Amino acid sequence: MKKKFVIACLFVCLNAGFLLYAQANTAALDEFGRAFDLFKRGDFQNAGAAFAYLYQTWPKDPLAADSCFMAAQAYFNAGDYPTSYGFCEAFIQSYPGHLNIPDMEFQRGRILFKMGRFKEANSAFGAFLDRYPDNTLYPSAFFWKAESFYQLGDIAQALPLFNEIREKWPGSDKASLAAWRLNVMGLEAREAKFSRLAAFEAGKNSTKEIAGMQKEAYREQQYLRDYLLLKSLRARADFSEPTVSPNDRLNMLLDAKERALDLLISVINAYLKGIAP
């Protein structure tokens, strides 16, 4: 009788356990469906929170990996890049053999790029290209690696990558983006050249202006020295600058002309005496 009672208890407990497990799975499934509906409607922030709740509440559930993956995607679409990065890293570390690992490693590079961590993004995209050469996301990773170089200001490495994208995947959206970036780089190069020329011309004009100012300052200094020297000489000679009236100037001029005429007459007389017989 006792044995039958123990078996009956075990049967009840097992049934209760199976019932609780089924209820837990059903709850997780319902929560995942609700979160996915939010994601499809574009309510990414709330979708991310719902997926995060599902992942944290049922970490051992078969839906936990998908919930972590979708939380990273939803928060990325919501623009909450630090939170997205946290779930991205959690997914990569917790589910290394998952089929979505390549997608999440690509997403890691995109998140780092969005956060302005271009050097780390460049490394992430480089690692993706090395590991998954046949992945459909390969051209996108190639483009974002080139774009990371561009954002770092390393035009020497960005330029050949953008050109390679146009050659390897012509007609693709990434080729169009690469062509657009190359046009922008060309415009920036011309603008930089124009700025350098403008700066050079401004420097030349500035140099000429400075040289002219230096010459003017030198002349002023020379005038000042001459004035001070003259003033010093007058002070030593103890005489003042003579003042001449207009009549005096006229008389002086007439006297000078008279002396010049007398000199000319004397020269003529001397010449005549020299040639007289």
Task: Give a verbal description of the structure.
With 277 residues, the protein is mainly α. The chain has ten helices and no strands. The protein has a domain of 143 residues: Tetratricopeptide repeat domain (Serine Threonine Protein Phosphatase 5, Tetratricopeptide repeat), CATH 1.25.40. Helix 1 runs antiparallel to helix 2 and helix 4 runs antiparallel to helix 5. The longest helix has 65 residues.
Name the descriptors.
mainly alpha, 10 helices, disordered N terminus, 277 residues, Serine Threonine Protein Phosphatase 5, Tetratricopeptide repeat
**H/I helix tally:** 10
- Can you tell me the residue ranges where pLDDT is under 50 for at least 5 consecutive residues? 1-24
The radius of gyration over CA amounts to 48 Å
Main β-sheet description:
none
Structural class: mainly alpha
Listing every helix as H and every strand as E from the N terminus to the C terminus, the arrangement reads HHHHHHHHHH
Distance between the termini: 188 Å
Q: What would the CATH topology of the domain at 12-154 be?
A: Serine Threonine Protein Phosphatase 5, Tetratricopeptide repeat
| General form | rod-shaped
Name of the CATH superfamily of the domain at 12-154: Tetratricopeptide repeat domain
